[in-house]
Amino acid sequence: MTLLQVEGLGIDFGGLRAVNDVGFAVAPGEIVSVIGPNGAGKTTLFNMISGVYLPGRGKITLDGRDVTGMAPNRLAERGLSRTFQNLQIFQRMSVLENAMTGCHLKERGAILSDLLCLPSSRRRSAVTKARASELLERVGLARAAEHEASSLSYGALKRLEIARALALEPRILLLDEPAAGCNAVETEEIDHLIAEVAKSGVAVLLVEHDMKLVMRISNHIVVLDRGEKIAEGSPATVSRDPRVIEAYLGTQGAEAGHALG
Amino acid sequence: MRLSRKHLTLLVLALLIALAPALFPSNFYYRIGALIFVNGLAVTGLVVLIGFAGQISLGHAGFAGIGAYACALAPGYLGLHPGLAMLLGAVLSGGVAWLIGRPILRLKGYYLAVATLGFGILVSMVLANEAKITGGPDGREVAELGLRGALATIGIGLSNAQFWYAATGLAMLLGAWVALNLHDSPTGRALRALHDSEVAARTVGVDVARLKLSAFVISAVYASLSGSLLALMNRFITPDVAGFLHSVELVTMTVFGGVGSVPGAILGAATLTLLPQALTVLQQYENLILGLIMMLVMIFMRDGLLPSLMRRLKGRG
After folding, report:
1. In the list A180, B71, B132, B266, which could disulfide-bond B40, CB 3.0-4.6 Å?
2. Which of A89, A93, A105 sits opposite B205 (nearest CB)?
């Protein structure tokens, strides 16, 4: 069963073909990673799938429905949630409020009841607060809940973004380099977290540079180079693929094989 | 239970409003106080728009104009009670904000500033030029609200200045309560979120266009009520209430006091209403010193008067 299906997806920036004819599928509970050298078009691909960029070509299907070019907030309503490579934290809000904002779709209600602080508004906020606190606990940020988000370390902010994305209770989660800038311990924590999320039936689409992490947790890997898909398959298949090795480290294949293996 | 920040803020505001008259040397100070509260109400609306949602407007005096002239015209032309005219003005302002906000709020930053500026100028031009209806640049008399007389018959005798001090103070307090409610509500969180990162707000499901529009409408209603109160208090109104200068004044008060903070913006309104009065002793140097103080505050207290002071008090400055 497929949750997310991408077919022939492409986009140009000016004359540059940033992404061209990329296709793959993600099933519930599956972890699919998109890898490739810098500038291969991984983040651009993510931005198209999450509705931030309008694709120039191709089709995106979510749960059997065509969602190509749909706005991010509509996609969120359909259960698609994401994190960002260059953090997009709500800096002037507290850590807890950041996580609470992830519950927006469930907690939004009549503005009038929010303006007058009616019981329904307070009830919605209370439910959200409990839910967000649970998620902060899960990513190890419970003790920082009341701090201003801008005071957190880079690794902690990465985890906060994951907590916010999980607050949507997504059916598919897009993680853009969740382990970038994190130390070994933090990477391992994120590793566990992703595996746990997938186990609960959420489809995970991952962009990550940490090859050890990718090889360990992915069910399926899609390799991009210069905007095109050059290989696809299980971690074992992909790491032996000569085109992948070449794309990663030019012609110094032996070294590349070592890095990927 | 510990007093929440919202209730503490409201308590301090209420105490200040109630206790300040003890220090008033003359009746004139009630009028200054009422002016502060009228401005305080308008800047609270701007906190919602600028401080929460991160959208600028240099035309909000236009809505104050709509509110003021609703009170000036509706009693004569439609036979409405001035109090109802105030409500009519608020509904009208909200409606106009909703209409113009849809196209205008797609703009960002200085483009948005110029577009809202245009709206403000439009309103003040209409008010100045439609002299047959509005009285033109010379202004127009406004009917008596009548509430003071009603209070007198039930034994609460207030001077005119005292009545308006109490009425506008109460209105500002209510306005602050509503804005503080919004701040910590689901809608308020979504507004502040889109202020910090529109793309992230979108990806958690926030309908950014709709929420910006809501903030614009809410702040327009605040400005409108502020204009209505000014008209009813002064019993006279001129198109200046909708003028560009008034718009800029309101934004300046908001940013000066602390754009993200309701009590901050109110402090800004109080300071910038009081300072020109206090500086009159300097005669021709008045504007020079006023400008200098404003520059120094913005250079050394970038977040505005109140947030910067609070941070210094907490020892993080």
Report:
1. B266
2. A105
Question: Cα distance from A91 to chain B (closest Cα, Å)?
Answer: 6
Distance CA B6, CA B11 (A): 9
Identity of the residue numbered A86: N
Confidence band, pLDDT 50/70/90 cuts, at residue A134: very high
Look-up: residue for tokens 């005669």?
B283
Q: Which residue stretches of chain B have pLDDT < 50?
A: 317
Are B39 and B253 in contact by the 8 Å Cβ rule? The answer is yes
Number of domains in chain A: 1
ipTM of the complex: 0.90
Is the Cβ pair B186, A72 closer than 8 Å? Answer: no
**Does A190 fall in a domain?**
yes
- Its domain, for residue A28, covers 4-79+170-260
CATH number at residue A54: 3.40.50.300
- Given CB atoms, is A227 within the 8 Å cutoff of chain B? no
What is the structure's pLDDT at A256? 47
Q: What angle do CA B208, A107, A143 make, to 5 degrees?
A: 100
Measured between CA atoms, the residue of chain B closest to residue A103 is B204
What part of B 62-91 touches A (C-beta under 8 Å)? none
User: How close is the nearest chain A Cα to the Cα of B93, in Å?
Assistant: 17
